[in-house]
Amino acid sequence: MRIESIETTVARLPLLKGDWRDTIHHVTHIELVLVEIRSDTGVVGTGISHTSGDGGKTIESVIKYSLTPFLVGKEISPRALWHEAWHFLHDLGGAGVTTHALGAVDIALWDLVGRAQNRSIMDMLGRFREKIPVYASGINLGLTESELIDQVKGWYDAGYRSFKVKIGKPDVAEDIERLTKIREVIGHLPLMTDANQGWGPEYAARRINPLRGLDLTWVEEPLKSDDIPAHAALRRQIDTPIGIGENVYTMYQFRDYLVQNAVDYVQADLVRVGGITPYLEIADLALAFGRPMAPHFMLELSAPILCALPNGYIAEDTDGGSLSALHALRNPIKVIDGYMTPNGLPGHGLDWDKEYFEKHRVS
Fold first, then answer.
1. Which domain holds residue 207?
2. Residue 204 in contact with residue 234, Cβ under 8 Å?
3. Are 260 and 165 contained in the same domain?
């Protein structure tokens, strides 16, 4: 079975529940790059890449003008092709736009093989569990305290039993006040926080240590994600575990985080690291260091993979940012009582709403 063609569509999907704001972002839309790979036997697999804001056409150009000529005609073997393609693209950059592009292609190839075999990706990889816990997450630093509490109450009432909110207000006392109010709502249930790389190494410990009494599961991205030694030093200065991975792109970068004892929860983004193939390698590496996988974003794609990992810990449902909430799917998948159960359909089991994509296509 060989690759016959690769087609792409870029859609700019609006955030239907309002803008996102944190310490570094103001996001009004998500751009999705849909990739369709057809085999010479007529089977089609689909994959996706994402950006928080613009950038979809940049990713598409790498797929159209670099990866497509390189891959068309090759025998379909996702893992082998991923490493060939990553080596081929490496002169353009070992990570970032290149891995975003590879992510969509690799997911499409795994989906194609699953459909050809009439097996779900979970079954191809081997199931460890039938469902995975999900935490509710919000891009909510810009919300008032009362708006934030209402959001968390809504998540709690919807059945979620783990929660993540943004921190990084100008005064740490305001972060403490907001988190204390949330604790009054959720009790001792898991509470995570995300600083979105908002602090420097000279400042982060003084922002995190005052939060000790709030029993936080993790503080996410306290520093610039490129600075691994600074995270290692910070981890020695604080009691709160550190989550990292949203802006870490390669197995080698994750290896250095783990070797330097700079991370507690590995939050690799399935798309940003380059797809299912490298995600599995990163998960194996994390397993060797006794670290759980708690991926960033892309709930509907991440959950089936987590169900096939011994160290799959929890998935993220970003309020308004899931594929279902973006109206990207014809078969939206619901979180029920704080868990997501993948549908078990062949491949990744997702049915893209191509009419909606076409309506929001970036020309």
1. 123-340
2. yes
3. yes
